[in-house]
Fold:
Amino acid sequence: KAGVTQTPRYLIKTRGQQVTLSCSPISGHRSVSWYQQTPGQGLQFLFEYFSETQRNKGNFPGRFSGRQFSNSRSEMNVSTLELGDSALYLCASSLGTPRNGYTFGSGTRLTVV
Amino acid sequence: SQKIEQNSEALNIQEGKTATLTCNYTNYSPAYLQWYRQDPGRGPVFLLLIRENEKEKRKERLKVTFDTTLKQSLFHITASQPADSATYLCALDPLSGSARQLTFGSGTQLTVLP
Structure:
């Protein structure tokens, strides 16, 4: 069974640009969550989508947005990139209940220069 | 404010010994507590989940305890092996309505020495 696929794996962008990251969840999983991981702040929750609806949002500025498509694939977008947005962005999929934990992708390493 | 602490940033143990990692939380009422393993450059891998009304959960060489009175979870790896070397993260899930959100600790980097 295929795991969670995130593309691209690595990305280098310039300050002020915008970026779109993609996540394909495990087949049958309707919940997709996004997390940002940095050495200083650790793993921080960005948002969660379930059946194309955003159910929860973390404490991040409006420059961070996302969406989910009818096939459960999800994208997150960061506009007006800042140096501090450099991080590993992780996508996690689940059935939508906590009983079986989350399956994470390998992440997208974003570097803002 | 809500806070999750994992006992130490790094833990070194000898192969064959039992590794014990601690996760403490404050100002939080989690319904579920989860443990993940993360290797460098990879996403976390789910290991075990324990509910607030469960005291202990086991899976092969892994054991997790959950004490909601002490607000603490202990994660044990018995007969540890060098392949167990990784960063271990605890995560709390408050089960607030239908919204799903994990709050992670900062992790403990475990090194098992041969």
Q: What stands out?
A: Residues 47 and 57 of chain A are 4 Å apart (CA to CA). Chain A has no helices and eleven strands.
